[in-house]
Amino acid sequence: MDFNQVYKVVFVKCEESSLSFFTDMPGFILAEKIEIEGKECPILQSTNGDLIMLVEKETVEADTIVLKTDDCVRDYYLFNQKSIPGLTKPRYVAHGLEFCFLDPSGNRFVLTEERDYSEA
Questions:
Q1: Measured distance CA(120)–CA(115) in Å, rounded
Q2: What is the chain's mean pLDDT, rounded?
Q3: Fewer CB within 10 A of the terminal residue: the chain, N end or C end?
Q4: What is the C-alpha separation between 112 and 114, in angstroms, rounded?
């Protein structure tokens, strides 16, 4: 394990269903599983290198997790093919293009493609 990596911790109601959800999704693979306080926590890696640690917790307050992508339109198309819940259409924002989706625990994920709109 590389301790210089930054993990985004995502609290989930059920580790098993969340792991199944993410590994069935385009762009996420199971990188490894580690044990924390007697609980096995899967670590997922996205195609751009973001690492997400799923931690099961009885009561989960939905959170917003921002991930980066290099092609928002491509990823939206792939997610749309999988009928991902809570999927929004890509929209232009000040820093680029983004779309959102929900995981089984109600966490809101925002995939952002950063773009520079300043004139050269």
A1: 13
A2: 89
A3: C
A4: 6
Write phi, then psi, for 65 (nearest 5 degrees): -120, 125
Nearest to 44 by CA among 61, 26, 60: 26
Confidence (pTM): 0.85
- 97 vs 53: CA distance, rounded Å: 25
CA-wise closest residue to 8 among 65, 59, 46: 65
CATH number, position 31: 3.10.180.10
Indicate the number of domains in the chain: 1
What's the confidence (pLDDT) of residue 83? 86
Q: For residue range 57-114, what is the model confidence (pLDDT) as tens digits?
A: 988 899 999 988 999 999 999 999 988 889 999 999 998 999 999 999 999 999 999 9
User: Which tokens sit at 43?
Assistant: 């670590």
* Inside any domain, residue 120: no
Longest CA span, the chain: 54
